Amino acid sequence: MGRFRRNMYEDYTSQHFAEYTNDENYNAAYRKVKKLKGFYSHLKVYIIINIIIIVSSITRDSFKGGLDFSGLTEWHTYSTAFFWGIGLLAHGLSVFGSNIFFGQDWEKRKIQKYMEKEAANKNKWE
User: Fold this and answer.
1) Are 68 and 58 in contact (CB under 8 A)?
2) Has this prediction a pTM greater than 0.90?
3) Measured distance CA(107)–CA(126) in Å, rounded
4) Rounded CA gap, 61 and 70, in Å?
């Protein structure tokens, strides 16, 4: 975001959301939302650009008499998507955290589940 636009936005938020700017929870949530918005913008551009690349590889010889699908089997068609996808994955991990698969309280939930299962098995034979 440009400096002018950022200053304009900060002026607006200081006037209209002054009661929230001192709240640390609000500031943390605001930073998370900005990171999430940045990731989704990155994902949107990734998808659009890679669709353009794939379509252009199909239609590159369309002036000579039709569509040429041989470009779909070439590495250079997908190389941008592959290497950019690695960067997008790293961006996603920075936004969603490294606990994307397990979550923050995954261990607690699993322990609780096994304890409940064990208690149900004990009561089953009584």
Assistant:
1) yes
2) no
3) 29
4) 10
Can you read off the two tokens belonging to residue 49?
A: 């650009």
Q: Which residue from 15, 40, 103 is spatially nearest to 32, judged by alpha carbons?
A: 40
Q: Is 86 buried (19+), middle (13-18) or exposed (0-12) by CB count in 10 A?
A: exposed
Amino acid letter, residue 83: F
Distance between CA 10 and CA 13 in Å, rounded? 5
Question: Tokens 């607006």 correspond to what residue?
Answer: 12
Nearest-10 crossing angle of helices 75-96, 24-58 = 170
Q: Within the chain, how many helices (H) and strands (E) appear?
A: 5, 0
User: What whole-number distance in Å separates Cα of residue 48 and Cα of residue 23?
Assistant: 38
Q: Is the pLDDT of residue 3 over 60?
A: yes
